[in-house]
Amino acid sequence: MPARKPDPAGEASVAAVVAALDSGDDPERGALRSAARFLLQELERARPGRSVEIRVVPVAAVQAVAGPRHTRGTPPSVVETDALTWVRLATGRLGWDEAVRSGSVRASGSRSDLSAFLPLT
């Protein structure tokens, strides 16, 4: 399967959200959703696999990270967070350990620690 080209609209959404965060403003809701979805797709592309399900509620969910594949029910490793936390993690504005410790990220399963894969950009 050919490599997917970066989505210019997704990249623009990430840039808009990052600019808002860096200036202390609240990001626009549509841009935040688009940026979170784009960054989930980037993780899925960068770390293909099906051993971890990453859920950004209510935006989207992807399966990524090489390892044992599940076929039915809940995957053995699940990461769940909100869009703002996911964008902050994926862009390096929040550390994995801090997000888990604060409860902003709920991670369960042996492969749910995504710290080695973040930030994406």
Automatic annotation (TrEMBL):
Signal peptide: none annotated. Gene3D superfamilies: 3.30.1050.40. InterPro entries: SCP2_sterol-bd_dom_sf (IPR036527), SCP_3 (IPR041629). Residues 28-120 form the Bacterial SCP orthologue domain. This is Bacterial SCP orthologue domain-containing protein. It comes from Trebonia kvetii.
